[in-house]
Amino acid sequence: MGDAGGSSGIFAECAIAFVPSTALTPKLIGELSSIAEENGATICEPRRDGSISIETVTHIISNTIDFPQYTESQAVMIPVTTAQWIMVSISRRKQAQVRPFSPDPRMIFSDVVVTCADLPESDKESIAGATMALGGQESKDATRLTTHICALSMDHPKVQASKNRGWKGKVVLPHWFDDCFKLGKRIDEGPYLLPDAEILKKSPEDDLAIPANSNLDGATSATPTYLALPTEGDTARPPVTVFQDRRVMLSSDLNISSRLSKAIREIIVNGGGRLIEQVEDSDMFICQYRDGPQYVQAAQSCKDVGNLAWLFYLIVHNEWTSPLRRLLHYPVPKNGIEGFQGLRITVSNYGGEARIYLENLIRASGAEFTKTMKADNTHLITARNSSEKCKAAPEWGISVINHLWIEESYAKCEMKPMTIKKYNHFPPRTNLGEIIGQTFFDESKLRELYYPGGEETMSPRAKRKRKILEAAEDNAYQHGPAEGVVIGRENDDRDMDDLQQDAEVKSTTKKTTTKTLGTVATPIRTRPVRSGKENETPSMVSTGGRSAKAKARDLLQTIAPDIALYEKEKKRHSKGANTPWGGKRAADQVDKTPKAKSGTTPEVDDESADDKRPTKKARPSLPDVETRIILTGFGRWVGDKHKEDQDRRKLRDLGVQIVQEGHPCDYLAAPHVVRTVKFLCALARGPTVISSTFIDKILETGKVPDVEDFTLQDKETEKRYGFSLDKSVARAKSNRGKLLLGIPIYCTEKIRNGPDSYKAIAEANNAIFKLYRARSGTTIRPTTAEEDGNAPPEPVYLLSSNTPEEKVLWERFQDMARKGNMEPRVVAPDWLLDVAMAQQVRFNKKFLVENFYKA
Predict the structure, then answer these.
(1) 722, 798, 809: which is closest to 762 by C-alpha?
(2) DSSP strands (E only) in 291-394
(3) From the record, what ranges are coiled-coil (predicted)?
(4) What's the whole-number mean pLDDT along residues 429-437?
(5) Which of 688, 643, 684, 637 is nearest to 661 (CA)?
(6) Using one digit for the tens of pLDDT, what is the confidence trace for 302-328?
């Protein structure tokens, strides 16, 4: 997309990649891509495996840090910003600074724009500087974009003038900023809002509701025992695509029931993943304890190591998150944290999931949790410094601290001194339960204590990952509230306001852009970079102060041969059932699949590997399923079921399995690009598309050739429908079946060929699909633009052919949509086929029914 070197526009030298997620849907990505391209950007498509080509991008747009390549972007200091960065840059007609738009939750003021009123100058500077260091911005006056005015009263002219203009922001006491800085967390500003600030009117002892907290969702226990499973009659669980192309190993120390183990295995396999028996072949290692040779090997090899709670979280949310993001998503120390043994800890003023979380965290640390407080307790962890327990504790010699002490002790794998001020800070009208669960692990501390060394046995892939982790750590803030955050490179062509902001930031926090990357980095960019943009000047190089980008480039160039060798070996296939194992076969090993009864089609998927089968007539040497293929448009078996059964058995004997529609697959095979339901539904999962001559070749020779030689080429069909198959597959891998997430698609009941096929295609891409009969139950709730936040109307689609019965529905549908503040689009079903084939939410007016069905 886009020309390779746009010469004009505010994004003229930007190569931008997008990360799809629930918070940044493919539909929104399509809209933002068009806007960015119109302003000179180059949009970097995902690679064939769906990942970002880090070495070619200048910016990554993501509304979350929960994506696998986030650490790699930190290592080479590629800025990761929210989608808002694009829109703010457009509105300002220049690139905005990246710091205020970091999706990292540790940048606690990322959406704050503050201006100060009646404060001493030193206080103004401190608040502005520290706010900007943590992702906020300062404005000299209260503008439409200002979110907070920091003042001591409502009497200041700046406050009065803003209110008279209808300004919608918040007037907050400086105490709010002070308490946030002290804790290193952002607390609710409600008690600090003028004119009736609660902290000035109520005492700390007055009642205060216990807050809800979404940070602990699915993270209150390291050993969950329950996973919600569909019951009989329920709609089947959609594929958990977060496991697509991932190889998962379950440790024997999990100690789970056979029923739960079977359910987990089925979910992983149905989601396109593989169950692996050897650590070295896995991508993800699931265990209970930070203990044992398998854990050490997995951690040293930089596998994604998590516990059952993390696995369940991935299953329930179907979105990637690091197991280091939440404390009870990582395996627990078998003997606790040094220093916690013998401690007796109780809690106060925490409720619900926060209390359960603290109980489990205390026990995981090695201390004893007590429900009540007695004289032999050693510590009281409290969310407020006001309760009967808090009053009695000092008299009994019991230490009183907040939950940050145990969280940070657990995250750093050592007991932190209780004298650190933030552990003893209790804002007067805040229950600290609202900020629980926001602490990240420190991977370097884990490695130092639980899996040091291992370099001599690391694979090329593990070595690369280790260098990435170390480089990311070097680039991060080492201390303070933003510890662990990497901002990325900032632009140098800024106006005076920007430079003044940076000067204030430098006064409050250490810059990271001059940190050392050791010997690491990305290959040389192919795009021109503005002079001075990334601090790469001859004077810096000559004095030895090499830029982070240059050092990052050196690292990946150093390890490039190892990476190339690994990638080549990973793709190598074994040529037959009795030949030595190739790299892909070794990497994709799964439980052996038993042979089906003689005379039946062997449609056995990997998830049934543990099922007991009759031994009668079973062949003993059936190989593992190495290659799963969905086949469509294949003419060889038409009208000859017996030949199909024979051929399927021959393929299965060679480790190749033809699977049915809806099952996980590695490849989608067809003689050419076809717009069948099977082809489009399978494409949504992102399998490599190959020519069905691959099947013919196997059956003719009795050997499995290199599948890379059979990638499907059909330029004529691509040109006819205006898409690139390679790009479609890459986008599908990146979208993970969520191309149409949240998009409502209605369909007439009398549409040609029936609605079922379109329903299958829409739901394979996560759309909301409904039949439209112009009756109650299929209507959009009427709203106004004001109710929808004055956002532009979202499109809503009705698939329809042009029969008289359907035409009478068009006007009703359009009226329904407009009343719901949505833009109605009555389209031919070819629109859906076009979108599913391109794996891109796009629209052309030629698909509107009035244009498509013209005589």
Answers:
(1) 798
(2) 304-306, 344-348, 368-369, 379-382
(3) none
(4) 96
(5) 684
(6) 999 999 999 999 999 999 999 999 999
